[in-house]
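tool_call: predict_structure(chain=1)
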Amino acid sequence: MKNLDLFSLGTESDALDTAPLAERMRPQRLSDYIGQAHLTGEGTLLRRAIAEDKLFSMIFWGPPGTGKTTLARILANETKSHFVSFSAVLSGVKEIRSVIDDARDLWEAKKKKTILFVDEIHRFNKAQQDAFLPHVESGLITLIGATTENPSFEVIAPLLSRTRVMLLKPFTEEHLTAIFKRALADEQRGLGKFAIQADDDAILFIVRLSDGDARTALNNLEAVASMVQSEPAEKRVITAASAQEALLKKALLYDKDGEEHYNLISAFHKSMRGSDPDATLYWLARMLAAGEDPLYILRRMVRFASEDVGLADPGALSLTVAAQQAFHFIGLPEGELALAQAAVYLATAPKSNALYTGYGQTKDLIGKTGYLPVPLHIRNAPTKLMKELDYGKDYKYAHDYKDAFVAQEYMPEKLHGKTLYSPSDQGFEKTIQERVKAWRRQKGLNHKKEEAWLEPPLRREE
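tool_result:
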């Protein structure tokens, strides 16, 4: 099998009008690359590796559309290396061996290095990943893998130890805006020859709809531009309305200073806290329609499950995390239903902030008392010396007693009798309340609310 230099093919396709805008607009030089400054900025490891011609094997880990393929191509261009790309979905060990043979021939004949770019490397099985090991080790190939999955779980340990993981972040609104404007202005590869204008609201709409994904942003721009590029010159303007029409989205824009972003998430959070499932669904749909990041909403719901529901319904956290996993598995738009299910569950669940309040008081208490010593009887005693120092002495093993409970003190001496968690009588927490009262009674503690020498934490407003 003769390997094709797909880097050259990619460069040629950039000049073709038939190639998608996202493909045509791929930058060819590092100086033209927008974003990922933590990897590509001056003084970074990658910059030094390029300057010293000591490029190393690496794994690019990041969401779709964050420039993994583009950056790999640029690295090959900057180091004048032969670039070979294939997808883990379509290739196997046979193709890997062919690439290795060609890389060896190229090095022996021309002293030219080979960069092997493997898209979706997490889809390779162990045997396929093993095939890279000796050649990465010897330096015959410089492997650049791309993955949207956590390499710690998806890439075998021997290969992971021979590569560096480079985390690529979603593009910011500023980065996507710059990419957007470059595509509008570029007459050779972009849309510059059509002299299309775009108002700020339209740019903001398309950028936020793209959720940090440059490929999506450019695909959306191309779709919107196709509706106006054949119009007379004075009408070649992309507006929020035309963007909505082209992308089949309703105009529910956040304002530029971000205030509406916080207004909507606040309304959503307070609707759940107020046990109003109708308002909860409304504000959730508003945020999703406006292009809010679904993962941001899910993060807020996970926090809500612990802060506002707590142990009144222990299943709330599990269901919300399951919604996150379901959304990650399904994606948009079908995954929106998982968010709706979790949101309504949280809204209709019994509420308790006892856990949130108790944990806040605990942190405050530690700040005031410092790190008090662990009582001797509950210290670990793995050595003879520790036992001689009374580590673990007189410890009572709970399972040796009725109902697996024995009255003994676990708090530092200075805090004997201190109450931090006061379960409410809501939902399952009422059962917890009854248990805790019985245990504290057996310990002879006064479980009435004591006069606090500790100020409770301030209630957090959303």
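agent: The CA atoms of residues 277 and 344 lie 5 Å apart. Proceeding to next step.
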